[in-house]
Amino acid sequence: MAAQLVDDFGRVHRDLRISVTDRCNFRCTYCMPAEGLEWLPRDDILTFEEITRLARIMVERYGVNGIRLTGGEPTVRANLPTLVEMLAALGTDLAMTTNGVSLPLLAADLRAAGLRRVNVSCDSLRAERFAELARRDALARVLDGIGAARDAGFDPVKVNCVVMRGVNDDEIADFVEFGRTKGVEVRFIEFMPLDADGIWTNDLVVPVNEILALVNQASPVEPVERTSAPASRYRFADGSGHVGIVASVSDSFCSTCDRVRLTADGQFRNCLFAVSETDVRALLRAGADDDELAAALEASVASKWAGHQINRVNFIKPRRSMSQIGG
Ligand code: SAM
Ligand code: SF4
Question: Is 266 in contact with 296 (CB distance < 8 Å)?
Fold first, then answer.
């Protein structure tokens, strides 16, 4: 049998998230402080060659079959289409999560370079509220970005919406309507304790059952069979598309998690909530060969825990926030 990135619980890891930068042109309240964060020095960031080498090892040795580019905001990394072309040559399902603001400029080039799928984050369809949440008055531009992604041939285009109680939970029906009429799949995401400002409290989390009830009220849905993907998917009963809910807090999907992460500064993480990392950049830059790099990746995955402990007394918030880890 081919080698696998497998842990003690038998979970095989085939999904790689790569953060290509920790920088961002937004300052979403649930992610970053208003003043931003201290950016990593340029030399600390992995080069395209280093990223591609690590990805190739994971694809060729361990059957990793999905790669998602994220950040920070991936589109602020210069020459992103070049990296996309290098990773596309590995032949995996190549996707990106973005705030969408640069898609009017970049969507066609990214698609031509081999990017297959795109998720655009958008947490409000009301311009004023969007500006408060993202701390950028950019709703119109993001909506243009969603349109540009569709025009460039990305299919499906998904829209990620972080739901927060008393902040934007009154827009679930609007997002359902938006998804159905624009032909995009909206994914509602529970707010996770990975914000840099420490504003997260359990009271701000709108649990999956509540979100689902509001979705059903807006337009009846029926469940689609679950996969290892974190979102529970539902189809609209009238055939007008799908909607997803990512219940990261109230109904963790840890038992089927198949995801590993590489941060912009070359730290390999076996869990979004991991409190320790494996410094693969140090190995790369010390001249490690592929076997040595592979051994480090295997050891990290082998030591993965059963799951995160949010809402338990032993939960430890990771030192880095979502934008630094790569959401
Ligand atoms: N900048 C890109 C974007 O916003 O899509 C990619 C990076 S962002 C960290 C990736 C995803 O994480 C986005 O969909 C964002 O909404 C989500 N996210 C950020 N902070 C979060 C939090 N505290 N809880 C839940 N999701 C969060
Ligand atoms: Fe930037 Fe994305 Fe975080 Fe918003 S969620 S601040 S767009 S990294």
Answer: no
